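Progress note, sequence design subtask.
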């Protein structure tokens, strides 16, 4: 009886360990950042916009989620928009663990989609050159979504959504309410003729039900486990919306 009891006890321990491991795996979130550092032919540099990483990161990190980073080329991705007066930016830049992670971002080929409960495409103008046509990233997002996970993006990050197709052949955004950097905002920053395509227009072409607010107004849209935000001012709220959706899983 003692031996049988020990066997049962060990068996329960193994089950509990597997359950804990499963829960730990489900708490990981994948952030996608651009590798592109040239703003068209302007001679100016670009990359990911720092606040569109740091503000969702802070929300999700505070909630206990582990975040990994991937970029089209891997390694140390370029960024801009460092605001020394933003304490969230400063916290991220001072975090040795996360600086090591983002400065050594994974290549798409190194990502196992089943490790993640959510994916978040951070914005920045660089995304307009290397997100949309990256088939490997699109497959990662498709697998996370079809595994009952969450796909999210902010500002120009939804460039990563325009060519994601589901197993049924439909575009991910088709028929869903979607938000992103608007045509009006692109015109306001005088880059409508610099970016390779109009993000709002492309999403609408893919069947998205595009929503938007006025210039620089926070706006977050959630529809069927897809979370999208309009601009840098929406970054914190995107993190909050992703967190809310994660709690439903």
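Output:
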């Amino acid at each position: 009886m003692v031996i049988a009891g020990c066997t049962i006890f060990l068996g329960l321990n193994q089950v509990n360990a597997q359950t804990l491991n499963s829960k730990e795996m489900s708490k990981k979130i994948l952030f996608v950042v651009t590798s592109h550092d040239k703003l068209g032919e302007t001679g100016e540099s670009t990359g990911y916009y720092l606040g569109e990483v740091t503000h969702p990161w802070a929300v999700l990190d505070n909630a206990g989620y582990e975040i990994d980073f991937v970029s089209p080329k891997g390694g140390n991705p370029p960024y801009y928009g460092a605001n020394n007066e933003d304490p969230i930016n400063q916290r991220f830049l001072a975090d040795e663990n996360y600086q090591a992670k983002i400065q050594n971002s994974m290549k798409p080929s190194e990502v196992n989609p089943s490790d993640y409960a959510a994916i978040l495409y951070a914005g920045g103008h660089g995304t307009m050159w290397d997100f949309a046509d990256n088939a490997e990233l699109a497959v990662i997002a498709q697998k996370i979504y079809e595994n009952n996970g969450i796909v999210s993006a902010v500002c120009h990050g939804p460039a990563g959504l325009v060519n994601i197709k589901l197993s049924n052949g439909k575009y991910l955004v088709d028929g869903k309410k979607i938000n992103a950097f608007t045509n009006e905002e692109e015109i306001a920053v005088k880059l409508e003729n610099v970016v390779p395509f109009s993000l709002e227009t492309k999403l609408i072409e893919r069947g998205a039900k595009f929503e938007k607010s006025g210039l620089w107004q926070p706006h977050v849209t959630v529809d069927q486990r897809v979370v999208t935000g309009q601009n840098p001012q929406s970054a914190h709220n995107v993190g909050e919306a992703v967190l809310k959706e994660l709690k439903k899983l």
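Residues 2-26 form the longest helix (25 residues). Work on this subtask will continue into the next period as scheduled.
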